[in-house]
Amino acid sequence: MHLTLHQVDAAHPAARRGAAPALRGISLSLAPGEQVALIGPSGAGKTTLLQVAAAALRPSGGRVEMDGTDPWTLSVRALQRLRGRLLLAPQVPPLPPRQRVITAVLAARLPAMSFWTSLRSLFYPVDIPGAHQALERFDLAEKLFERVDHLSGGERQRVGLARALLAPASLWLVDEPLSALDPRRADEAVRTLLDEARARGATLLASLHQVDVALERFTRVIALRDGAVFFDLPSAQVTPQRLRQLYAQHEDELHAPAPALDTPAPGPAPVVMHCR
Ligand SMILES: Nc1ncnc2c1ncn2[C@@H]1O[C@H](COP(=O)(O)OP(=O)(O)OP(=O)(O)O)[C@@H](O)[C@H]1O
Fold it and tell me: What is the Å distance from ligand 1's center to 240 Cα?
């Protein structure tokens, strides 16, 4: 899918009326099948940008186009159809705690299913081999019938990523997919995402706090700071000096070690994770 933003302004979805916009005059274009990393200090607007790109948040100014169509001019039904072609993977996937992993993963197929098939799949999973295969790509195949609230934060995050492989989407918008993974798992997960998006010809925009991963694995990097594009460059042209300017007053984020949360939950109690 071809994604274009023209001079987009937007408020954070949870912002109060009259709050300063989280995005200011953002213009960018992603070609079909392109893979781009989105970096920038905390609060720069990465999540808000992904929400706008997923047609989940209406910009307060400017225009979004997906394959040449402004989603906000579509009828409700056409907008719903378009959203079926988009995948927004939030940093903390909203997985119902008592659900089995298989059901949570196969939920990614819902946009492509009829009402009755989707209802039936809640009780009789329709594609067990497909779910197994997707989980296997993230080293989680043995968790197929596990309950979501028995998983660690990192395992849940990988379940969220496995959903991408089953979604009938041509634009993947992934918000900090590695935030709860240790460095080895993070590298494996990002390589799997990139390989699978490439194999499907899907456009991928992923926000990352791990600048080293962004530079090593992606060919193009868009940096946000204070709600505006700070640079949009081939990764080979991103110099340490540019990064220092981008993360000025946030140096700890540039050098922060990756968290290692990818260990099993200690007991059956749900792991509660909070979004900012
Ligand atoms: N819960 C909230 N309520 C109101 N405004 C918010 C909230 N969260 C963020 N904002 C505002 O929106 C701006 C952009 O936030 P956003 O979450 O998009 O940034 P981000 O780059 O994804 O940050 P992070 O890397 O910490 O997730 C913030 O600077 C802040 O002003």
Answer: 25
Residues 6 or more apart whose Cβ sits within 8 Å of residue 273: 92, 153, 156
Ligand 1 binding pocket mutation candidate from 8, 9, 12 (most atoms within 8 A of CB): 12
For the record, the structure tokens of 215 come out as 């530079």
- The whole-number pLDDT of residue 98 equals 83
Total-model pTM? 0.86
- The confidence score (pLDDT) of residue 199 equals 93
Handedness of CA 45, 46, 52, 57 (dihedral sign): negative
Ligand 1 atom nearest the C-alpha of 51 is 18
Q: How confident is the model at residue 122 (pLDDT cuts 50, 70, 90)?
A: low
Show the tokens assigned to 15: 């912002």
Average pLDDT, the chain: 86
Burial classification of residue 166, based on how many CB atoms lie within 10 Å of its CB (0-12 exposed, 13-18 middle, 19 or more buried): buried
Residues with C-beta less than 6 Å from any ligand 1 atom = 12, 14-15, 22, 40, 42-48, 276
The CA 16 to ligand 1 mean position distance, Å, reads: 12
CA 9 to the chain's CA centroid: 20
Question: Contact, 169 vs 85, CB < 8 A?
Answer: yes
Give the ipTM.
0.94
Question: Of ligand 1's atoms, which has the minimum distance to the CA of residue 14?
Answer: 3
